[in-house]
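Milestone M4 deliverable, item 7.
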Amino acid sequence: MTPAEPAGRTVHDRDLAYLLSRAERLFSARLATLLEPENCRLDEWRVLKILADGHGHVMTEIADPAMLPAPALTQLMDRMVYDGLVYRRADSRDRRRVLAYLALAGRDLYERAAAIVARAAAELATSLGDDAS
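Output delivered:
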């Protein structure tokens, strides 16, 4: 038999996987709220961040870091192309491959969103007591 949990505590309070998942969900929800005035969804932000390096990327290079399954990423990329945030071009070295790049509007949105995300990350670091700055 395990000892009783202190009042107000649950078994999840000791589960690191649960706590990390909860922290990620809370921070993601916070970012989503902060990005909303820019008409930028969190999954769009992840794609913008990947494409911001200026190198073209094939869909398979985007899916995992964007945390999206391929069908959802395809749908999102189609919407981002339609919105003028992203464009696609055939790879000059391998014409069978299609690379995605940030369009000018996508670069502008990325820069605005990056500032928002950086402020949120700094606030989180401060609240956690990060004095490594």
